[in-house]
Amino acid sequence: MPGRALQSNGPRGTKLHAICDSKGRPINFFVSAGQVSDYIGARTLVGNLPDVDWLLGVRGYDADWFREALKDKGIRAFIPGRKQRKKPVRYDKRRYKRRNRIEIMFGRLKDWRRVATRYDRCPKVSCSAIALAALVIYWL
């Protein structure tokens, strides 16, 4: 696979961190508390990244340690820098526009009422419902 996308999205109470393939199909999930930084999701998912050439990510994942971890794995990062950065980070804006695939993936998952309304309060059950929705939508 040529690339992956990493992004967090979710309602106030929880955040869903996801890794998608180049076609926008979800591969791996991590659910964290809503007030937790995106770095927690990045730290959890960086060990599960498959062999890819490049990775797209949102500004929330802009950290030097994350970029170094990706570089150690041979993955080129296309993550825009945070606004507070003193030295701007260069990235391919044309390739970054492909991030809409992961936005579409989150939208399709939220078509399932149980996922969109956070019907399940337990994180394990909520993650299971998200995985079931992803399985039915993308893999069956």
UniProtKB/TrEMBL annotation:
InterPro entries associated with the record: Tnp_DDE_dom (IPR025668)
Protein name listed in UniProt: Transposase
UniProt source species: Thioclava dalianensis
NCBIfam families: transpos_IS5_3 (NF033580)
Residue ranges of every copy of the Transposase DDE domain listed in the record: 59-138
